[in-house]
Each structure stands twice: as structure tokens, then as C-alpha cells.
Amino acid sequence: MPFPSRSSVATTMRYAGFVLGVAIAFATLTLLVASLAPGHSVRQEGAGFAWGNYGSWIVLASLAGLALSLPLAPNGACRIAGGLVACIALAGSVTQVGRIAAAAAANGGRVDPFAALDLSSPAHPEADGWLTYNVVDGRAMRIGVWKPRLPKKNAPVLYLVHRGGWNDGMGDARSSGAEADWWRNRGYLVFSVEYRLASATYATWDKAPADVACGLGWVAQHASDLGGDPKRIVVLGASAGGNLALNLGYQASMGQARPSCGVSVPVPAAVVAYVPIVDPQYVYDHGQAVGGRETKALIENYIGGRPDRHADRMRAISTDTYLSRDAPRTLVVEPEEDGYVPAESVFRFCDRARTAGVNVTTVRMPVYNHFSSYGNSLAGQANRSVSHAWLSRFL
Predict the structure, then answer these.
(1) Is the pLDDT of residue 10 over 80?
(2) What pTM was estimated for this model as a whole?
């Protein structure tokens, strides 16, 4: 059997390279179209996740698609068609990344697309120490401490309430290390609190808020011992952690915080919330399931059953319940493409909060969605840098 000639091998490889380039371009266009589609869907959630976390890599892939499809096209017609598709894909991917960067810049933040290429950065640094802030049912409740890289007296304090749908996560390095490290590099004394988590057999709608209230009171008592300023405490949370953070700050301003320990709960200087669950009923009814993770199950676990059987508990976890003009100033960062916690529920809440007299700033971010998978992602950079710029105006 004769071996194929060098020319036939070269032709085959040329065709393969061209097809690969066009395939990359079509894959990018698929993400682009899904991202721009109205409403919420699994496809759109996947696209938003891809752009927010891997947008810089998609740009590089689109560039590679163009580099393959143009010179390796087998004829002029293929070169024109393939080149056109690849050019549109590249322009679209650059536009998507540019929209994120532009929105962050418009709100005082900064996104570095090149830094987002490092998928491993930053790591999950361990806390400088773990301290017990309370003991509940024989269990030590811990709080992690990340001290500023350049120690100073009276540093602003960041009190982190981790995400996880009230069912998952902890205040440890895996859940909070990247966030804590970013803020301590900017001079903050950071605390990350553990709280009791819900399960199908253990409702914590009244326990988790009590734990984070206890933790905040403990921080106010001990921040100065660790170089922090107890008068400049910022409470920050994302998703379910955003719900707990907002409710805690607002309850404290009304004198309604109920800690699980004997502390006085201070009113924080500010509350920052990323993608917060503020209207649990709307999220229960309309939240888009992602990767088999349904908001319905998370909320049912948290309150101990279906909402229609626990209207009082749903009111207790709804942030609207605690709106008042005495609430601490608030920043809400919400991506417009969030379907897991539908963005419209967050924006409507912010409108109601302003009507109630709350000093709330809403930052609407384009392109990406609810989930940021690693520290230097485009979404992660946008959320943090915008929040830091906002806090720097008055803290």
C-alpha cells in the first residue's frame, strides 16, 4: 500500500487547520448569540459564565481562529467566508470583554484582561489565624482573620459573609481566601465568618442570621486589638451571603438584630452586596437552575419547607422587611445577565430601597452572570474594583 504523498498530507493538514479555525469562530459566535438573547435560559447562563470567567481566553481563541482560517483556506471563496466569520467572532469577543471593562471603569473600577488569563491567580491563602467567636450546641463557631499586608493602626474592617445558597461554603480559605487576600492587599483588616448551614433536615433561617450578627458584634469588640477601626466596618456578602449581609446591616440599624451570643451588634459603616438574594419568593419562582443546582431546593432547605407553608419565615429572610431610611449606605453590584438570582428582582429591590430612603448605589454590569469561578476573572475584578472605588469615597 503506497504512502500518501507529502503534498496530500499537507493538503489534509491545511483543510484540518481551516476547519478548526472556522469551528473556533462558530463556537465564539454561539456564545455571543446566547449572551445577547433576551430573557434567562440555561444557554444564556452558560454563556455569561464563560464570558465573565474566560472572556480573555475566548478573545485569544478567536484570534487563533482567524489566524487559522485565513491563510489555510483551500480557495478564495473559503478564505472570504471563513475570514468573515472569524473576523466577526473576534470583533464580538473583544466587544464583550470591552463592555465589562468599560462598565467597571465607568463606576471607578478597573479590569485587566491580561491578568484574567492567569486562571490560577490568586491562590487561596490561609487566614493569619482562626478564632472562636461563639460556641453553639457544643460546636465552636470560627472566624478567620486576614491582616493587612502593610500593618497599620485603625485599618478599615471588612466583614465577609460567604456565599453558597445558605447550604454550602464556609468562611475558610477555599471559600473566602481570594476575596480576603485582595482586600487585605488594599489595607483592610478582613474577617470571614462561619455560620450554620442548612440542609434538607436542618433549617437555619433563624440561626444563620443570628450567627452572622454574633460575629459582627464580636468583630466590633476585637477589631481594635488586631489593628482595625471598629467605626469603619463594612459588611460584604455575595448571593445568599449578600442576603445575610444586607439583612444584618438593615436589622442593626433598626435595633432588630438578634445575635446568637451576648454582644451588641453595631450598625456597619456600609454594606456591599454582589448578586444578592433580596426577594427570595421571586428567586424561588423564577430562578434559573444551573448545573442541576436549583434555588427552590436551597430556599426550602433554608426555611424548612415550601414558602407557601412558611410565609412568616419568607418575610423574615426578605430584605424588604428591613427597609428604613436609617439603613447603612449600600452598594449593590448586579450583572444584567444573572438568571440564577434574576437580575430584575435585584434592580426592583434597589428601586424600592431608594423609595424607602436608603442611600443605595446600584451598579449594573453587562455580559457576565451570577458565578465567578476564580479570583482574577473579569467578573471578580469588576466586582471588587468597583466596590473598592465606591468605599474609598467615604471610608
Answers:
(1) no
(2) 0.93
